[in-house]
Amino acid sequence: MKITAAEVIVTSPTRNFVTLKITTDEGLTGIGDATLNGRELAVAHYLKDHVAQLLIGKDPHAIEDMWQFLYRSSYWRRGPVTMAAIAAVDMALWDIKGKAAGMPVYQLLGGACRRGLSTYGHASGRDVEELFDSIRAEQEHGYTAIRVQTSVPGIKALYGVAAQKQASGERYDYEPAQRTAQPAEEDWDTRAYLRHVPTVFEAVRHEFGPEMILLHDGHHRMTPLQAAQLGKSLEPYDLFWLEDCTPAENQEALRLVRQHTTTPLAIGEVFNTIWDFKDLIREQLIDYVRAASTHFGGISPLKKVMDYAAMYQVKSGFHGPTDVSPVGFAAQVHVGMAIHNFGLQEFMPHSEKTNSVFRQQLTFEGGLLHPGDAPGLGVELDEKEAAKYPYQQAYLPYNRLNDGTVHDW
Ligand code: EZ4
Ligand code: CO
Q1: Which of 137, 167, 229, 317 has the least C-beta neighbours within 10 A?
Q2: Where along the chain do its domains lie?
Q3: Is the pLDDT of residue 139 over 60?
Q4: Cβ-count burial of 311 within 10 angstroms (0-12 exposed, 13-18 middle, 19+ buried)?
Q5: Whether the CB of 90 sits within 6 Å of ligand 1
Q6: Relative to the CA of 174, which ligand 1 atom is closest?
Q7: Contact 262/235 with Cβ under 8 angstroms?
Q8: What pLDDT shows up at residue 172?
Q9: Of the residues 120, 143, 159, 288, which is catalytic?
Q10: Residues 6+ apart with CB under 8 A from 182
């Protein structure tokens, strides 16, 4: 089999998605996700201008060789743009291999280790009452694990709260990228946040009892000491994990955080290679790997990092916001099915509009996600539908402190 075409499709049904479609001389096609939220066209051009022509005539079955070729031959390694582009190729080739074998990708990765993936949903509110309603709504949708975000008195921005309501009948989309020409500016005050968050978790535990699995995302906003303080003050509320407590660049911060708290730590949604996790896993500074297949070079490296993590009892907690396309999401659900050290999968359902472009086999029943048993990844791109939604400039919000200083968002 040989690759005969590689096309990049940019579509914006609710949000922007970049998809690579690889065609072979045997008529099989495969798709991969290359969506980098807020910088989508950089990856689209990387693929169109620098990668597509390298694929023509190559053997689509040689997935590992293709990955190594794209990674090493570019000389300029790593980085989210490069790794999202490589991820798209990797996923598309796994999709083709699955279709050629007549098997879903998780079978090719070793087969199912479980009936389906436990997931967590997202709740938030401007006050405790609104938050409780939001938690109850998530429970009604079948979630038993819930990430809790809350607004903070004195801060205008609604931290972790839905930015836009979807079309009527659809659920809130908690992914806050906005399709505007400039990023939205938000405000932030870490001291106010640190005072408020433990009171919210206390209220949630009091209302919902000890069993519910609770998570929280710190979104890189704290210093190492502040993160240690928060981890400690949340210990009575038994979090499943505290996510991204410090900025990802400062890996040593986690040593300090670890010395002070037993709250489990998850990190890595902005990491893009296995090397970003290497020391954190070996030193057992984290408990959950938050990578997303799309921003991490695809299925192949995600499986590798998890096999490495297994030796240290570190589990998966893959990043599953709606800015990962249904293709990228399916890719990591297949990995989650096949690894022994699965932890918990983030699940933020895509909009009806997104699902009309990306036809999915994914099911969420009895609290478990399953990628379906269609050969390959189980997602088909409807190109006619995709063409109805042209790209729109979009940015994530960013933060400024009281005095105007830019802060991590
Ligand atoms: O803000 O994916 O844990 N989830 C998150 C996400 C990120 C977005 C950034 O594009 O932190 O909602
Ligand atoms: Co996060």
Answers
A1: 167
A2: 3-103, 117-374
A3: yes
A4: exposed
A5: no
A6: 12
A7: yes
A8: 52
A9: 159
A10: 395
CB contact at 8 A, 40 and 391: yes
Report the range of poorest mean pLDDT among 135-139, 166-170, 244-248, 400-404: 166-170
Measured from the CA of 217, which atom of ligand 1 is nearest?
A: 3
pTM surpassing 0.90?
Answer: yes
Kindly give the distance from the C-alpha atom of residue 217 to the centroid of ligand 2, in angstroms, as a whole number.
Answer: 5
* Residue pLDDT, tens place only, 304-358: 999 999 999 999 999 999 999 999 999 999 999 999 999 999 999 999 999 999 9
Spacing of C-alpha 190 from chain mean position: 25
CATH hierarchy code of domain 3-103: 3.30.390.10
What distance in angstroms lies between residue 219's CA and the mean position of ligand 1's atoms?
Answer: 8
The question of whether 159 is a catalytic residue gets the answer: yes
Residue appearing with tokens 């699995």:
213
The ligand whose atoms approach the alpha carbon of 320 most closely is 1
List the CATH code of the domain at 117-374. Answer: 3.20.20.120
Ligand 1 pocket residue status of 100, Cβ below 6 Å: no
Residue that is written with structure tokens 């996923």 in the block:
91
